[in-house]
Design goal:
This protein is an all-alpha fold. It has two domains: 32 residues; 80 residues, no CATH class. Helix content is 70%, strand content 0%. The protein contains six helices and no strands. It starts with 7 loop residues before the first helix and ends with a helix.
Length: 126
């Protein structure tokens, strides 16, 4: 008698995975999912998300307060002379110049904020 060759479906149904194969398959799937998620999926840890939220919050506050600095610049009686001085200064020193003039000191604050001064200098220079 001739034995017939089992079909693929029959061979597949006869396969029984061992506990070790199932365990390592699950572990590999988990690790690959994490690698793909953190690399390309945009996943971040809780600490990274917290830092990103703080930076976004600071940027939003600076974005809202910088126009007030520009208003203070426009109200300065010696505005024209100071604007000429500001144009002669290099870009990386303009924020310090704005702080020195007191334009970046917000009402109720004792010290000027450097991020606001830098944003104000960019707005003034435009």
């Amino acid at each position: 008698m001739e034995q017939r060759k089992p079909s693929l479906g029959e061979r597949w149904s006869n396969v029984r995975a061992t506990k070790g194969v199932v365990f390592w398959s699950c572990l590999t799937s988990i690790v690959l999912t994490m690698i793909v998620g953190f690399s390309w999926g945009g996943w971040v840890t809780g600490g990274t998300a917290q830092k990103m939220a703080e930076v976004k919050g600071e940027d939003a506050v600076v974005g809202r307060l910088a126009p007030f600095c520009v208003i203070r610049v426009n109200q300065d009686p010696r505005r024209d002379q100071k604007m000429k001085e500001l144009k002669d200064i290099s870009d990386w020193q303009k924020g310090d110049y704005v702080k020195k003039q007191g334009w970046a000191t917000m009402p109720g604050e004792a010290e000027p904020e450097s991020k606001i001064a830098d944003a104000c200098a960019k707005l003034i220079s435009q």
